[in-house]
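Page 42, continued from yesterday. The earlier attempt failed because a stray header line got pasted into the input along with the sequence. Redoing it now with the clean sequence only.
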Amino acid sequence: MIPLFLLLITLLLSSCSSSISEPIHSFQVQTPRPFGYVIGDKITQRLLVEVRQGVELQYSSLPARGTINRWLNLNKVKINKKKASDGWHYQIDLTYQVFYAPLEVKMLDLPAFTLQFRQFGNTVGQEVPVWHFTTAPLRELAIRKDNGIEYMRPDQLAPLIDNSAVTTRLTIFSAITSLMAGYLAWLYGLLSFLPKYQIFKKPTRQLAKLTEGDEEKMLAIFHHALNRLNGKPLFKHQSKVFYQEFPRYKQLQSELDWFFDYSNEYFFGSHAKLDENNSHRIQQLSKHCLDIERGRR
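This time it went through. Structure tokens are written below.
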């Protein structure tokens, strides 16, 4: 009884050791659909092989790139080798191209070949079987007619590319660019069409046409411009509040103080006449205000 039990144990161990020492652990052939091919189509055949340590693929056993037969080419051979748990894993991609032009649906095949592996000086083979597929003509042999017109199926529409992300980014960048351009235009006084930038434009032109003897008109024109800017009548004693609201005009404080003093002297004093120099000073003051309004100062 004991010798029989030992014999069974020995047989089990021997079978396990033989399976463990198999040079090729697994082999798989992956292929696409076996139908619906026309002349010029490409077919990719993928081989997945796992071998144990010490077993190396013989690259010369793979089909050579180029013409396989009169209607089949092997365009590309790609081999990816990586370390597995107890050996090596090979992924072999073979890209074929079909040049058969059938008159009707016909069955063709990718030819079989044998992968060879080297193990301690010995050669181990693995058969890659024939793979059958069908190919069809590009158009019917007998042309169908529809109301006397040749029947043609419409071309398939190309898939649309999702450009929503690009459109969103372009919209955001355009908005930011527009805001920055608008801010710079406002900063440098280029938005002259806005009412804010037209307060001193007309008064400056009017004052340029006036000469000595038009004192009252000159003072009234410039007072009106200052009142429009301030939003209400502006007097000298309100200058501090005015400069807080319009700080860019503070650089003209001395010129504006002179203008208010001279206006008071003219309207409420001895009615002294403006000489040519004072006329010129009012014209220059208006130009300086226009420069600030346009962002040139």
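Notes: Residues 11-20 have pLDDT under 50 and may be disordered.
Reminder to self: strip header lines before submitting.
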